[in-house]
Amino acid sequence: xxxxxxxxxxxxxxxxxxxxxxxxxxxxxxxxxxxxxxxxxxxxxxxxxxxxxxxxxxxxxxxxxxxxxxxxxxxxxxxxxxxxxxxxxxxxxxxxxxxxxxxxxxxxxxxxxxxxxxxxxxxxxxxxxxxxxxxxxxxxxxxxxxxxxxxxxxxxxxxxxxxxxxxxxxxxxxxxxxxxxxxxxxxxxxxxxxxxxxxxxxxxxxxxxxxxxxxxxxxxxxxxxxxxxxxxxxxxxxxxxxxxxxxxxxxxx
Length: 253
Known about the structure:
The protein has helices at about 15-25, 40-50, 75-80, 105-120, 135-145, 160-165, 185-190, 220-230, 235-250, and strands spanning about 1-5, 30-35, 55-60, 85-95, 125-130, 150, 170-175, 195-200. With about 250 residues, it is of the alpha/beta class. Strand 5 (about 125-130), helix 5 (about 135-145) and strand 6 (about 150) form a beta-alpha-beta unit. Helix 8 (about 220-230) crosses helix 9 (about 235-250). The longest helix has 18 residues, at about 105-120.
C-alpha cells in the first residue's frame, strides 16, 4: 500500500519514529509521501527520505502557515524541488476555515508560486482545500494545472468538484475521514469510481475509526482501505490495487 500523504517528520513521532516506520512496513505500506509545510519541514522531510527508502517527499508551504513576510522561503522550496527524493510540490493550497490564517490574497499568491514550480520541475501538486475547494479549482483553471497533475489531499468536496478536478488531471485523496460515520466520501466514490483515487493517512492527523481522535500513523492505512472498500462495495485487494496504481502513476514510483 502507498500512503500518499503524511507528516511523519512532526514532533508527535520523535519518540518512536523508527518503530512507527517498522509498523508501517509490517502492515504492508511500501511508500510514504512525506509532505512539507514550510521550508524547514521540507528540508527535514528530505533528510528523512535519505535515511529511509520507504519515504519520498513533497516540498511546499501549507496555507495555514503562510504569511506575506515568509514569501522569501519559496525560493528555498523551489531549490529543494529539484532534489531526487522529491516527487511532488506541496502541501499547498487554500484554507478558509481558520480566521487567523493569512488573507486569501496572500494564500493565493503562494499557491500560484507552487503551481509555477510544479510546472518548472515537472512534478505534481499536493493540494489542501479546506473550505476552499471551488476556489482552488478556480485558480488552477486560471493558471493552468501542471501536466504532471496532482492530488486534492483529504478531499472535502462533492461529486461535481471531484469530476471537475479529475478532468484537470487531479487525484482524489481519501483517508481516515472516509471512515467517520457521517462522511460523504463513500457515496462520492460510488459515483465517480476508484480509478482516480489515492489513499492517504495525513498522519498524525485524522486517524480512522476505531482510533479517531488519537495519533494517526501510516500502519492505519489498512483500516482506511478495509473500511472504505466495504462502504463502496468492493474488495480491499481491488481498492489497494487501484489506488496504488494511481499513486505510482502520479508520483512516478
